[in-house]
């Protein structure tokens, strides 16, 4: 669950999700509030460009490469409908493969699984 827009927390969340997928574990990413920006095409690239560049210089995978890996490895990516409205974003702003859903849908899909919040 991505709740904020803190770069380091988002990066850690994407790292954990990618590692789980690499171990053939199912992953459901639900972004709400400012966390929605991490699954938008344009907004995070402006905000996080400098930090991503710093990671690349040190040989660490960037937030956006991780995000693309989650899509490629078929993670289920959901964005909270109210979080989308809260950020002023539209469904058309999201990267491909992201579905808009509410908290009840997330809770139904996450039932019986561990929830980690970033």
Automatic annotation (TrEMBL):
InterPro entries assigned: DsrEFH-like, Sulphur_relay_DsrE/F-like
UniProt name for this protein: Peroxiredoxin
Protein source organism: Acetobacter musti
């Amino acid at each position: 669950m991505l709740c904020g827009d803190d770069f380091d927390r988002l990066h850690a969340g994407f790292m954990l999700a990618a590692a789980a997928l690499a171990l053939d574990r199912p992953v459901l990413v639900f972004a709400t509030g400012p966390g929605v920006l991490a699954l938008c095409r344009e907004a995070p690239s402006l905000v996080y460009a400098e930090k991503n560049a710093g990671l690349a210089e040190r040989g660490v995978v960037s937030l956006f490469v991780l995000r693309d890996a989650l899509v490629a490895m078929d993670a289920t990516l959901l964005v909270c409908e109210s979080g989308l409205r809260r950020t002023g974003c539209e469904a058309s702003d999201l990267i491909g493969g992201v579905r808009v859903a509410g908290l009840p849908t997330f809770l139904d899909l996450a039932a019986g699984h561990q929830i980690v919040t970033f």
